[in-house]
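Deliverable D4.2, example record:
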Amino acid sequence: MRYKSTRNSKLSLLASQVIAQGISEEGGLFVPECLPQVKEKLPLWRDMDYRSLAKVVFAEFLTDFSLEELDECVEKAYAPAKFGGGEPVKLVPLPNSPGNEHLLELWHGPTCAFKDMALQILPHFLTKSMGKSAAGKTAVILVATSGDTGKAALEGFKDVPGTKIMVFYPKDGVSPMQKRQMATQEGENVGVCAIEGNFDDAQTAVKTIFTDQGMKQALLDKGMLFSSANSINWGRLLPQIVYYFYSYLELHRTGRISSLEEPINIVVPTGNFGNILAAYYASRMGLPVKKFVCASNRNKVLADFIRTGVYDRRREFFATSSPSMDILISSNLERLLYALSGEDSQALTGWMEELAQKGVYEVSPLVKEKLQALFYGGFCDEEATAQTVRRTWEQEGYLCDTHTSVALDVYRQYIEETGDGETPAIIASTASPYKFTQHVLGALEPLETMEEFENLRRLEELTRTSAPRQLLALRDKGIRFTEIVPKEQTAAAVRRMLGIG
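Output generated by the structure prediction step:
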């Protein structure tokens, strides 16, 4: 299995090379030259536990890794103790919902968000990749985060030999709990910095640094090279494919689908398009999917794009109660458009240049037709987000976070619009409700304080649920990182933290 770039189809690199590099030299994203076809293997995979399934999926893509290396990576990343015991994900049916709905809980890991599913294993992939393609060099991991990726990456890479990690987040664009998770991060090789701007500003700054030849040379002179823990890195995206296969097979194991031919709907709350793209890749490999439901919050650039074929980031940016989705430039959409355009690098590059220069592009009628055949796009405003949190608790006895609430609301819109309420649905539940305590509690009753841990205690009391112990422990941890820089000074902050002048 070799890989090429969305903006240069002539490239042909090994998995270890693309994981170590993160992003292609010309700014494109790495994709497999072809996707393995595994539909006939589903009966063989049906009764596998999560770790066993992960190993066989990874073996399809990481062909320059030995089976022993993959086994070591998986066993270390998904050790039951890291995910509360048992399997790392849980599939929970909603018995009173209007559709045949199942919440895929992806947040039982160390940082209580779905990013743990990929960021617990990426450090193992990366260190082995560096040994194959860049032995002796230190990997400098740059991360732009809208909240969850930052903490998950910090936790995954803390004190990993041969790595340094720096995370940039919008100072007013994450929840109080997300900010505290990052500001208290332990580890000698970690750095955290807030920027004056939104997530798109942070992401653009990091991508610019990646392609800055002067910066790259300065790193090389110090025996370092850049890599990424964002889902632009194939090693971050690949692990997310596994849980869609696992949850589908779980539906069959528990009798909720009758055969391994039966299609499902997959619903994902998304901003940067990585999580839903992983589901799309799973379907290309043979997972039976009827519709991908792309759920946006008030920053509905993706929902508008799916409905119109026009991607237009020239709009007001909103800070919402689902901050991990507060994104107007969805990086992973590039990979989907590359596939839907017939791997036309020239057309893809043109669209990306228009986005960078004009803030808008429109895909061809054929690409739009393919997009709409596969995807449904909808959005959920702030009022509906709170209402859905409250309704899901009152009617289902299920406490969900605000991002999961967006997915539930948009899926109800899909059912109402299409009448497709019988198809089994897997709905990605991406974070613990206790990561967004103020908004979740505020949806259930009026807030009496803005103090995070008082609200956490009240939410436990009101719902008779328990906050994750790793969040409770943050109350007594000291703050380590307080720096805030203008977005224009992100590169200078990187140089300062790395000591390269």
